[in-house]
Design goal:
About 50% of the residues lie in helices and about 15% in strands. By secondary structure, it is of the alpha+beta class. The strands form two sheets. The chain has a two-stranded parallel sheet. Helix 6 packs across helix 7. The longest helix has 20 residues. It starts with a helix and ends with a helix.
């Protein structure tokens, strides 16, 4: 349990809570921030060692650095699992083996991040906007 909490960047904040790992999070995690709830949910999904895991906007409340750390750890440490990541964030999608790009409710493309960058105008535009937003965020730090 502690290993998993570390992989999803939750161990530090859990240890600081009153009663640490025994802390009562309240109904639906009401006593935690959005990012903390997401990290606890990610950790719980790996405790049972399921062969298939579906994440729906699993990193949407996390900052870029925390998201990157968690995704690197999860993808590296869970090779036996099939993980479906439903996301609007390219920073999450880039970690996936295959990306299915939906446009107007239909599959517009299916490929790797690198392949989509060279073959799909919509994905290229999205990536360009992501890069610009990421650079602006980095310059504000």
């Amino acid at each position: 349990m502690y290993d998993i909490a570390k992989k999803v960047s939750a161990d530090d904040f859990i240890r600081k809570l009153t009663n640490g790992y025994q802390f009562s999070v309240g109904e639906r995690g009401a006593k935690l921030s959005g990012g903390q709830r997401q990290r606890i949910t990610l950790a719980r999904s790996f405790i049972g060692n399921q062969s298939i895991v579906v994440f729906d906007e699993a990193t949407s409340a996390l900052d870029f650095n925390t998201e990157e750390t968690i995704l690197q750890q999860l993808m590296k440490q869970q090779p036996h699992q099939t993980i479906f990541m439903i996301t609007h964030r390219l920073s999450t999608a880039m970690y996936c083996d295959q990306i299915i790009l939906l446009e107007d409710g239909t599959v517009a493309a299916q490929a790797t991040h690198e392949e989509l960058l060279t073959t799909n105008n919509t994905y290229q535009d999205l990536y360009q906007r992501y890069q610009e937003a990421h650079q602006k965020t980095a310059s504000l730090s």
